[in-house]
Each structure stands twice: as structure tokens, then as C-alpha cells.
Amino acid sequence: MSVFVITIDGPSGSGKGTLAGKLARHYGYHFLDSGALYRLLGLAAYQADLLQEPLNLPALEHLAASLDIQFIVQDNQGTQILLNGQDVTDQIRTEEVGSMASKVAVIPSLREALFKRQRDFARAPGLVADGRDMGTVVFPDAPAKIYLTASAEARAGRRVKQLQDMGVDAKIDAILADLQTRDKRDMERTVAPLKPAHDALVIDSSVLTIDQVLKTLIDYIDSRYQTTVNSP
Ligand SMILES: Nc1ncnc2c1ncn2[C@@H]1O[C@H](COP(=O)(O)OP(=O)(O)O)[C@@H](O)[C@H]1O
Ligand SMILES: Nc1ccn([C@H]2C[C@H](O)[C@@H](COP(=O)(O)OP(=O)(O)O)O2)c(=O)n1
């Protein structure tokens, strides 16, 4: 049975994770949150005191190759994430760990070390993969590619609301500044920079609801599926 891969790339707060999760449930597909892998590597590097300049590249490469991580899918409660047996599900979602992830993500050999782990998520009947380079580098042959974006202000506003709903005090100015720093680093790095694949559907969700985006994506994916299975 062939594996139908749907990729969703885009900047922080564009709605990738939310939409990827909904699409995976809609189609009964597996789900790869590639950002979680970078967040785990960033956190592990921080815990091992390996984020100090000058970087100890061999030690970071060893860490990336031997990263002990587990994704435990739980009924209706999302996915529990373990690093070296410790539950880090909530910890890796902080903006601090997002920044650590973005720092390790500029290093080509570390991206290479995570490449095969990501490809291994592609199992029948299909996969929804979200991140920064899913459509450009990790799954370049995916039949359905989406690039989700939104204005920096809309994305920062969503993050503030998300954090406030979790009981965390968040200031829009600080969140907006962090997000713009991370966007710049992710878009300007030389290896696998954040950009739409040439064959991606680009959607700006600044003034769209989650349900409106979901409907657009399902219509698009269904049309791509027809094209893919009917083509010779
Ligand atoms: N179109 C949208 N309109 C309003 N809020 C949204 C929209 N898309 C996502 N969100 C909300 O924005 C926050 C960030 O979304 P998330 O899926 O985590 O983004 P990403 O994975 O791209 O960083 C979440 O609280 C989510 O519910
Ligand atoms: N495929 C990926 C996924 C994430 N990254 C890096 C760059 C991002 O700033 C960090 C965190 O990614 P993540 O998708 O978890 O972040 P957001 O939820 O979009 O804020 O990891 C990457 O370089 N390539």
C-alpha cells in the first residue's frame, strides 16, 4: 500500500500543528510534529550545557544521533513526549525551548541526523507532517503540500491567547519580538530555510477561522488525491 504524504510548512503560530492534527484525524493518517524533534534536541543540548559558544559540534552530533525520545499517542489527549524517559510534553512548548530548537536547527549535520527519523514516520495509509522543510527537503515528492502563513501580529496574538488560556502571563510585545527573531533565523539559514515549496498551496490565515482553513485544505487534498490516484 502506498503512503500518501501531506506536508504543512510555515512560520510559528500560523496554525500548522492545529491543522495537521485535524487533518490526521480526518484522514486516519499518522502525524509527524517535526518541530517537536528540534525542540527535543534543543532542550537536550541545553540540559547537556552544549548551547554555549563556541559550539562543541562533535558532542552535539553525538547527542542528535543518540537522542532517546518517545511519542506516546493517548486517546483524545494528544501525545505524551518523553526525553530520556522524562515527560517533557509541556516543557518543550515554551518560547525558550522554541528558541533553543531554532538555534540547533541552523546546523546542517544536526538536521541530517534527524532526517531519517522523520522519513520513518511515513507509514501506510498516510502521513501528515508539519514543520519548516517538510515539503522542500524531507518529503519533496509529497503529492499534497501546504504552506500556511499569517501576519506576525495575528500569529503573536494567537500565541498570547494560547499562553493565557494555559494560565501563563504573556506580553504581546515580547512574544512578537521573539517570533520575529525566530522567523528571521528560520528563513535566512543556509540549510533548509523556511519557504514555500514551488508546488505548495499557500494560504494566509490572518483573517480565516480554523474551520475555514480546514475546509480549504480538505478540498485541496481531496482534489490532489484524485489527481494522484488517477494519474498513469
Ligand atoms: N486560523 C486561526 N484563527 C485563530 N486562531 C488560530 C488559527 N489557527 C491556529 N490558531 C490558534 O493559534 C495558536 C497557534 O496554533 P498552532 O497550530 O500551535 O501553530 P503552529 O503549529 O504553526 O505554531 C493555537 O492556539 C491555535 O488554536
Ligand atoms: N522541520 C522543522 C521544524 C522545526 N524547525 C525548527 C525551527 C523552529 O523555530 C523550531 C520549533 O519548531 P515548531 O514547529 O515546534 O515551532 P512553532 O510551533 O511553529 O512555534 O524548530 C526546523 O528547523 N525544521
From TrEMBL:
It catalyses: CMP + ATP = CDP + ADP; dCMP + ATP = dCDP + ADP. One of its GO terms (molecular function) is dCMP kinase activity. HAMAP family: Cytidyl_kinase_type1. GO terms for cellular component: cytosol. The lineage of its organism: Bacteria, Pseudomonadati, Pseudomonadota, Gammaproteobacteria, Moraxellales. CDD domains: CMPK. The gene is cmk. It comes from Alkanindiges illinoisensis. This is Cytidylate kinase. Pfam families: Cytidylate_kin. Belongs to the cytidylate kinase family. Type 1 subfamily.
